[in-house]
Amino acid sequence: MKLTAKIKLLPTPEQAQNLIDTLSRANQACNALSEIAWENKQFKQFGLHKLAYYPIKEQFGLSAQMIVRGIAKVVDAYKLDKKTKREFRPTGAIAYDSRIISYKPPRKTVSIWTIQGRQSIRYAGGEHNEALLKFQQGESDLLCRKGKWFLLATCDVPDEQTSEINSILGVDLGIVDLATDSDGQRFTGSEIRKYRKKRASIRASVQAKKNAKASKSTIKNTRRLLKRISKKEQTTSTIINHTISKRLVKKAQSSVRGIALENLKGIRDRTVPRLRKKQRNEHSSWPFSQLRQFIAYKAQLAGVRLVIVPPAYTSKTCHECHHLGHRSGKSFTCTNCGNCSDADHNGAQNIAAVGASVTWPENSTLYCALHRC
């Protein structure tokens, strides 16, 4: 599995200046390459390399491999469409490969090519990223964010062999509770709900100032503030999604179970129109697809079997008698057997049952137990 390790570089002031100069020179070369590609209508890597390699090398004084990576960057930029000439920012990210960068984990340094020659730069990485670096393979993107330097290293991590499982843990993703499993455990709380409401209120307040009659400087400041708020929300939601997915996978792994998730493609289009206006911002601000992706890749790394099931009627079917019932918010009531339970818990149990039927044949013991054969 391909994963990305985020490594924070700790350059000295002189090294930081070398990195800035290198990024600037490399992106200048990319702009020149883009000009050649645009004028000659040559958007293939081999053709552009043959056409521009030696002129660019002579003009910008970059290493051979840096020019090759620049050609690849320009070609990738034109893959979307060839209707507009591409231009690159002076501090845009540049890809490095194993010929111009190497990691030294024991010393926590990285040897990286710059226009001033090779530089040995210290880096800081958490336990997770340090573990990933053992499998570093392929390219690493050098980028600068607000004066801080990072390397995004591609790591080819081997998957754990999927082990035999005894049952399925169903997981229902929702609005009020971000995740509820078939054991009845909820992976969210009132604090998260308050946070989401507060952030929606702040965004609305700032946007109101932006839309009002204001000076250009005020509008510019509100745009910056909205961008900063958005970044903070993304960081918070990513941390929470990582925590939830890690706990779910660990729970399934320790109890020798697989995980069943719904195929929620298009859930936002189906759900948002039915919500009140106040609920829409709260719902739309949460990255549900990210949570599902985190669960999927963590399960694959841990060797936990993952099953994707169709979402039809999982929230409206009674897990006791399998008849259609009535759901109102967080409450589910079965009109056939009288079962009253938490709607998300009921849905998670149905997801677990459907996941079991997908995983095992109909004559298996587990399938019969879950479906009361």
TrEMBL record:
One of its GO terms (molecular function) is DNA binding. Coiled coil: none annotated. One of its GO terms (biological process) is transposition. The lineage of its organism: Bacteria, Pseudomonadati, Bacteroidota, Cytophagia, Cytophagales. In the N-terminal section; belongs to the transposase 2 family. The keyword Transmembrane helix does not apply. This is IS200/IS605 family element transposase accessory protein TnpB. Pfam families: Cas12f1-like_TNB (PF07282), OrfB_IS605 (PF01385). Keywords: DNA recombination, DNA-binding, Transposition. It comes from Larkinella humicola. Residues 288-351 form the Cas12f1-like TNB domain. Residues 157-256 form the Probable transposase IS891/IS1136/IS1341 domain. It comes from the Bacteria.
